[in-house]
Fold each of these.
Amino acid sequence: MILLELNGITKRFGNLAAVDNVDFDLKAGEIHAVLGENGAGKSTLMNLIYGLRQPDAGEIRISGEPTQLDSPRDAITHGVGMVHQHFLLIQNLTVAENMALGTRDRGFRFRRDEANQKTRELSEQFGFAIEPEAYIWQLPVGLQQRVEILKALAADARILILDEPTAALAPQEVDELFSILGRLKADGRSIIFISHKLKEVMTISDRVTVMRNGSKTYATNTADTSTEELARQMMGNEPPVSQDDTELIEEVASDDAALNVQDVEIRGDQGEIAVQGVSLEVRRGEIVGIAGVDGNGQVELAEALIGLRKVISGDIRLFDTSITNKTTADIRGLGVGYIPGDRQSAGLVVNFSISENLILDVHHLREHRKRILLDKTGIGDDSERLIRNYDIRTPSMDIEAHALSGGNQQKIVLAREISRNPALLIAVNPTRGLDINAAEYVHNSLIAQRQASKAVLLISTELDEALALSDRVFVMSNGNLIDATSKRSDMTALGLLMTGAETHP
Amino acid sequence: MNVLSKFTSLSRRQILFPLAILLSTLVTNGIILALCSYNPWEALWVAIVGAFGNGQRIAETLIKGVPFLLTGLAVAFSFRCGIWNIGAEGQFLVGAIASTWCGMQIAPHLPAVLAIPLTLLVGAAAGGFWALIAALLKVYRGVQEVISTIMLNYVAIHLLSYMVDGGPLQEAAKRGPQSDMIAAASYLPRLIPHTRFHLGLPLAIALAIILSIVLFRTVLGYQIRAVGANPKAAQAAGISISKNVILALFISGALAGLGGAIELTALTRRLFLNFSPGYGYTAIAVALLAKLHPLWVILSSLLFGALKTGSDAMQQMAGISAKMTFVIQATIIFFVLIYGVSSFREQRRKLNVG
């Protein structure tokens, strides 16, 4: 029996079709995996099913009935439940209290015993082993996730959407999650399992749908496919934009390493080891690309290189100078430029003017001062020049940065970082969220750096981008860096590396 | 064209909104007064005459604004750096305490030309160091400055009460909870005969101008604003957050401390219990109303000064009880804050676009 059916669903954001004419169906009592890279449209599709967004075209049928889902509340009423990647739990309330928040029958008085009892019953029914009176903050991540699942079950969800449910779990927690999913399936409930981890999809799902660039590219019974095939479908068959048709192929790399990273270990925000013993060399005149799915330690590595994060062990050298755990100002002073992954939160002060943003890193230098005052005229002239040279489209340099488009905002960051002529430029997802023209502008700027015999480290979740621009390509997975240069034309192998299905080259 | 339309739409909002606020303030207070069987028209008239009726009253209004001005500048400066310094009250008091000590112990041995600046500087330094405690706790221990500065207010209030009530600064005669007069050499000069108008106001206005130059034209100000507007981006560009937090809080505390020193050396000339009727707290309203701009703080502090003299007059001339004038003051501050905070939130919203 088909429980959920999507026909020709399309969702546009501006000119971009985030979900493009997608058909999808979910049977009662099955686990259907949706696979795809970041930005493939998985999350948008799920938001449509959960009523967070409404499709521009196409229809959604639940149990055969055409259904309009205007809000998550609508979706819940129709038996759709969602477990978000980032849990929506209140840390300093108990499990039962969190459960009660989701229910409809809110009286004035909170009946604690009743809530505890309900939670206990539900938990036992599915073998969850959750103590209703435990506080959320006391629970490990795996159990918190079960509370989220329980919340959906309490609302009697027959369709359960799990968004990257294994992203934060330890291996044995993953096993436990899978046995729970098995029990839910046996109970006749259906699960949409969103992931980019091939091995897990092969293990747990009955069917799998692959999305790429907003379209459904492949759908099959899991039993009829292989990890290799899925990887190929996920990455696409077309060869990456070839280097041959640009002048890029001309070898300009010299032998001296601009950046030399030796065996560094770096902690993430939660105190976990985010980067484990990574070594890397970037030479003058080359672009080194690090591809990988978000959250595998790339950002931590970049932050350590620019001095925003401490290194626990290991050594980072810029030419012959150690820059390990130096301050950001010192490292920049030695000739390192940095394009952060999120231009609005880390690249720009969005309510500073363009010209103020253009001097964020150098405002303190003597050339920008007249005695103790900032040299407004000089800074203005520089800004005019940068706005012209980097084609920042703005009526004036005094406009605040938030008023500009994403592409123009990124050009401010580029202008600032590249015009300093850095010996090493670190760029993290420099084209994220940009349209094609703006992205191409960024790409050409990076290539120009390379041609000028500068070193560029490009960290990107877009595999195509990393492949097209880089002289050498690495894949980062689980805090490890794997040299993938020899596999650059083998999308299947790259896919396996990126999804952690294979950890050794 | 574009600029013009932007300008006009802005100014329409900037005119209508304050007018609406003014009107609702008057109506609300009128109702309150009428309900308590006072004549609201008489009260309003008396308040206006009390604040601006003659030269002497205007002078009084102006000098009543001085402590608001300095504590307001203190709050605005730290808020610009994204630091919620709620401790201007404590810094103001500690500044006054230190100045009293200086004015009694050191000033008598100095000529006025040295004694005055020294007494003021000691007060400013004391306020700065008081705020520095919160800054260091924040930078090295991650203690929220909102909590620590409030706590330090209590410490300062009790420190003051110890000092003048049995402590080392209590008057020699030990009659009440106050100090002896400080040395005449450290009196801040009064400028206009027959009024209490003193050098503090021009001094504070000059400081407001200097501060706005510092904030908008110097490296330090640029860094402080960058850290306040987006610490992450500032850090990624190589600006030290710790350094700027420490500096901004020190300067902020010093301004509030100087406020205490000026109030002491120019007006009261002795320290006593309840030295501040809550200047440091009202300062938050002063700063928000001024949209954290030092030059606007001048105007908003004078408004609060007028409020003070106006309500004093209501008490003395219209027989309205002191408690009642507090109610009216609070209502006015409340409405003013609706204006100030809503425009402040507009700024924050702009800031959080990302």
Note: Residues 196 and 267 of chain B are 7 Å apart (CA to CA).
Amino acid sequence: MQNSGTQKAGLVLSIAFGAVLMTVGMEIPAFAQGGIPEGFKKGELAAPPSAEMIEAGKRVYFTKCVWCHGVDGAGDGPGADRLWPRPRNFNQGTFKIRHTASGELPLFDAKKPVRGQNDLFDTVTHGLPGSAMPPWEGILTEEQRLQVLAFVTTQLVKDRSFTDKQSETQTILNMAELKPKSATEESIKRGAELVVEKKCIECHGLEGRGDGNAFNLKDDWGFSIQPANWHKCWNFRGSRQDPYSVVNIFRTFSTGINGTPMPSFADNTTIDERWDIANFVNSLCERDEDGKPLSIDPLTDKPKINFVIPSNMVEGDIPADIEDEAWKNAPRRYVAMGGQITHKPRNFVNRIDDIWVRSLYNDKSIAYLLEWDDRTKSVAEGKLPWAPTEVNIDIQEQEPTTGEEGSIAAKQNNYPVYNDAIAIETPVKWKELPAPIKPRYLFGTNEQFPVDIVKWEADGSIRAFKGTGWDKDFEERDNYEEHLKVLKSEWKNGRWYVMIERPLGNKKDQDYDEDTFFEVGQYIPTVFFAWDGHNGDAGRKMAVSAFYYTFMNPPIPQETYIYPVVIAVGVVFLEGWVLTRRANKKKGKTL
Amino acid sequence: MKALMSLGALVGVVGLLLLAGMIFDVIPSNTIRLVEGYMPMQMLFEVGCYVLGFTGLSYMLNAMGMGIPRFWQGIGFWIFFLLYIKYRVYPPIPFSVRAMYGTVGLVAVLMWVSANEEDWKKFKQPILNVLDAQTGFNKVLRYVYLVALPILTWGFSYNAMMPKSEEPIELRTVHPAPPASTKVHGKTYVLQTSLNPYRVNPEGKYDQEYSNSLIVEQGMGRLMKPNANPWDEKAEGYLKYVREGGEIFFQNCHFCHGDNLNGRGLHAFAFNPIPANFTDPGTIAQLQETFIFWRVAKGGIGLPNEGFPWASVMPPWEQHLTVDEMWKVILFEYWHTGYYPRTWD
């Protein structure tokens, strides 16, 4: 119903819009008026903010912003050297997310906090997902946000001027009059052809996972920059906390991203083509089984997490083919990954930020299908200088203050390459831990409560370890590896597909001193670790998940069918009793 | 009186519309829902307002000759209450807790409808009508109930017995009892007597009054006091150390605890539970500075046994920071959130 209403409204609007276009068309040539790209209009810089506003903004800046953006706004605050992307350097007046033509200053008006018409205000309000810039809505008032921007645009932007109408032009993307094209199959198909034709895939990769030319791209300041992964729209910097909106994609595609290799396509695409591309890019973003957008958690602006990974039972062998019905029917879970920042070497910038997990089991073993986006396939050249069991590997973590050259952002393209890897950790004696108690998540508690770690590496190896503490080397379980199977491991267009099969554990005497016993119908704490070899990840420098639970769906017990019927019959008797009693009472009889 | 009642009616209607908006997700969930830092009192107060609003609404309807029978009022309010506790708060309250509140709510409604004999009769009447009807609509209704009740009971119990894989609920001790003393970098600190060595006035004397006068202001934004900028080159004593603590915070802690110390850092989304929110009045505002020192130094791994489950990836910061750096970070956390550390007296 809502759809047809929108469509109707859209139809009316497009007719009206067409009429406007036709009248304009009579006077001016239809395409590009005076060098203005299609869909844009001329605009003007807003009036400069008052001195009081700037002064008030300074107070906001030195309470909240200075810590990353620095005293002079050069993006060199105390937090800067351990961040990638680095905090914005305001001095050059280069801003990414805008409604203005490529190279121009973004929209900013200290008196107009209107969504979509005030780019810098929107950025402060909604933050830049995928970077350390948080949304400030609800923390700073609207007025405070405008004040701090008044300070930044007048005092910290040094090479350009938000107040000089002589030197700066404003050519504004006229979003108010551009209505999204509905995302029909045809439009999406045309978009898919256009991203090839317009060479989008050279950087964004064949499947749009941002794996084309990864890490060789540089921004204006010489730091490595990675093309967006179209499958994770919640990480789009310009998503304005509305990740599944085509409007934002259309805007970014039309205006480009200043200071980065992402150009504006306003001059060589029509508006219609831009909507097709936006519809296609939007269609790639991860969705649930029914094709609906994932629900986004308002606390984190990432997909909502379900911490239970259900495992379905299959008869016979677990299929090694992802396209198999059993895998297709297995529920998929989003597993969020953060950097390991508890013990040295801490991983401040983890490039793997989620894994998609599915699981199946049969009477002997359980299999996990792990899929995660990794822009580079990394296999170490030659032998690694440490044993696979070693945990205390001598990898230096990023120093806190290094200046730009030594910062974490400057290193992104030149780490030594190790193996990509993934590991599944389960506690061995989970049954002896009272229900809510879990072992230490990092490599087990101690000898008494060890963990069982199965680790796959991109060189093709799969190993089983026993972990007894965060700083204890692993113990390799030699006799166990023959029981492990890698059913599949493939890197394709920026994504790893790895399927690992392992035994359910010792069922007979339940002597589970070394390996986890996977029991049907029980919640088995499960942790995932991931390493990106091109990020210099090895040892404890890795990405980690929180505790999830593997839950092997039990067959439905017979009681489920019997008891409800018994209860329903009981209710019928109860009804009979009440009615009889009532009838008797009315007749004057008492029971 | 009438004006007051119509105001109440307006409140009631607006409240109902807002709740409907939240249920059908028309209203953006992050604007109107209670997302964080709310107090149980706030919810109670709101429900109280709704009760007043509904009183007004019922008065107006009666005045217009469209009064709702007591029976439906009672049921309607109970349903409203159930929906309210389900949809008002994000993240949602677990079912078991809602079931408890729901029962209390039901008892309250029953007490209200049975306040006196006459009311109770009025309340019972529709039920008895259906039970006793010999003809007409109520008789049909009775047979519908006769069939529907067993079927519904069967459906609910079947549903309840089907094996499910819902996340098990975990209870955890947020602030476990601290030890009497803690040993950090070879030195023993007695929690009752230790002082933050950087909470000092420009003369270098420990001065809590002086430092408390320079913390950020409460209220939206929590901005620094004018003329108390830690980044001022002339800043001395307390303020200078606040800046140094902030530098350490933004090199180490903000990844989880966030740029605004609200537990929404870069990596926070991956953790469960998400990291502590220092701007919440239930965290550092309730604790002594030395308690924080112990938690910072020992991290999640140093939690005592009664701190189970160890659902904390808080690093033992003694592995990464010196004692001085930890004290400075703590100083900064109190400054930035505008809270005073609790004292022993």
Note: The two ends of chain B are 50 Å apart (CA to CA).
